[in-house]
Design goal:
With 257 residues, this protein is mainly alpha-helical. The protein has helices at 2-12, 16-30, 36-52, 56-66, 81-97, 102-119, 127-142, 146-165, 172-186, 194-205, 213-225, 239-253.
Length: 257
């Protein structure tokens, strides 16, 4: 619906208060219609948006509404994977905001990605799955578990392959999400090399989704690296050209580590 799409556009620009207000308007329209799953899906995006906008108490209240009759801590949570995955991502982001231990936070991010990948019928060919996987990679880098982040890289590569060659959706902002997540992973704990510099340039050329704190953090890191005194040396390229180069670069580099 329009509110969901518009909220995502606001989130992509880091305009989190406006995104949250738009998601809430969508919930108000759908709830009287009994569209329970649609409301839950929008509410999970609201949770992530509130966390990205640094409104953790509001995010916690919305997450409590989602889990009122639904146990996310179950080993095999039931329901729509496009609700479960983002909701579990919200749990991990909230744990990070609350200062939980890095291993606990990392386990939360990894679980969000694994459940989403296991339960969604289209896998990373679907943009919602690719976003959760990319967010989990960024979150794992933030929480210090780089090895676990690398375990998810083949899924990001497959997501770009599906987008480039089919049958995936042509969702360029999600390609940008992959670019930012892989860029912070590649540059984690190592001097910035030629590959790292080019990844920064491609991430700048592909503005990605910023719907949760870890994605916003990854996006901000790439922007800082490409700043006036940063590593970027080349002007931005058209998005389709950048996607093609990113896809080739990931194939060349992702499996050599």
């Amino acid at each position: 619906m329009r509110q969901s799409s518009t909220g995502g556009l606001y989130g992509q620009q880091g305009r989190y208060s406006e995104a949250a207000a738009t998601y809430r308007a969508g919930i108000d329209l759908l709830a009287p219609l009994g569209a329970v799953e649609d409301v839950r899906q929008i509410r999970t995006m609201l949770v992530l948006t509130l966390l990205a906008g640094d409104f953790p108490d509001d995010a916690r209240r919305e997450l409590d509404v989602i889990t009122d009759d639904w146990d996310l801590e179950a080993e095999d949570p039931q329901g729509n994977p496009e609700v479960i995955g983002p909701a579990l991502l919200g749990v991990a982001e909230l744990a990070f905001a609350d200062g939980a231990s890095n291993p606990e936070v990392a386990a939360g991010f990894l679980r969000a990605a694994r459940v989403m990948l296991r339960e969604h019928p289209f896998g990373v060919a679907d943009p919602a799955v690719l976003m959760v996987v990319s967010a989990a990679v960024a979150g794992l880098v933030r929480s210090g578990d780089v090895d676990a982040a690398w375990e998810l890289v083949p899924q990001m590569v497959k997501g770009l392959d599906d987008m480039t060659f089919g049958p995936g959706w042509q969702d360029l902002p999600q390609a940008g999400t992959v670019a930012s997540a892989f860029t912070v992973l590649w540059n984690a704990g190592r001097p910035t090399d030629s590959v790292g510099r080019r990844l920064v340039e491609l991430a700048v050329s592909l503005p990605g989704r910023r719907d949760c704190p870890s994605l916003d953090w990854a996006w901000r890191w790439t922007q800082e690296q490409a700043g006036e005194d940063g590593v970027a040396r080349h002007p931005a390229v058209p998005r389709h050209v950048a996607v093609d180069e990113l896809q080739r670069l990931l194939h060349d580099q992702a499996f050599r580590i």
